[in-house]
Amino acid sequence: MAEVYKANPTSHKATKGRGKSKKKRERKSVTHLRKEVGKMGRDSLFTSFSSFPSQVCFETQEKGEAVVLFMRQHPVVNLPWIIMTVFLLTIPPLFEYFPPYMMLPTNYQWMMSLIFYLFVVGVMLAKSMAWFFNIYIVTDERVVDVDFVNLFYRVISTAKIEEIQDLSIIQSGVWETFFGYGKVEIQTAAEVTQFEFDRVPHPDKVGSLLNQMIDMEEQEKLEGRVK
Amino acid sequence: MDALIVFFESITLLGITRWLMTIFLVVYTIFAYLMMRQVKIMIKAVSMKDDYIIKIFSIGHFAFAMIVLIMTILIL
Predict the structure, then answer these.
(1) Cα distance from B28 to chain A (closest Cα, Å)?
(2) Which of the residues A15, A45, A158 would you substitute to probe the B interface, choosing the one with the greatest number of B C-beta atoms within 10 Å?
(3) pTM of the predicted model over 0.90
(4) Which CATH fold would you assign to the domain A12-73+134-223?
(5) Alpha helix stretches (DSSP H) within chain A
(6) Is the pLDDT of residue A3 over 50?
């Protein structure tokens, strides 16, 4: 990527020291991208699509590497488990129609309901974590896919922009068309040959941005500005 | 042999229920602790704006599990 630095962008350490009047400097290519892409989405904690998020950084982020796009799955994918949780929360009042439960003393009945609510909270937290930590990041140098499959299994894969060989955008079905989300499939020459940005909002914008970045990367290669 | 018979005679439905609830809660509290640890690791891996909120949720969940476990041991 371009070695011409305007400044020192959001690195992991730099972001940690956020708020402290440290003047941020960034690469020319990032400045160009910022102008082209502009600000998309919000910077809130539960955002599912944000360009140039202000306070996002990741463990393997290199010095000078800027986060261009931060994505999660579209919030609507959470609807099934939210409905299930609401349904589960209505169950304890129905316990009294279950004879073995009614045979128990009051304190046992009370504790059983409490345990049930604890279990529902656990399910809710596990499901929300699976969504919250399933993150897709596009930086000015690479794509990062953080897959939080379950509590005991997570995968973090990366591929350089210059290693991207092919891009496809898949948007199928009523829900995807209605809510405007879809899948971005990225074929790479990296160790992980396929990246899937699954059910992300605005897949067309993601695809077009990646194409733009690939072009920029090729341009820089031609100009001999690659690190 | 008599001691064994006395032991089996002392087993009640309430006793079984209490033990099952306690075992379930011990396992659940371990799960809640692991969840809290995992959140900490994930926040370290990818940090973002106001991510302490999700950390507070996981700590709250672990505390809730601990309280329910202690209550089960004390009340039942």
Answers:
(1) 8
(2) A45
(3) no
(4) PH-domain like (2.30.29)
(5) 12-16, 28-37, 79-89, 99-103, 106-132, 174-179, 203-223
(6) no
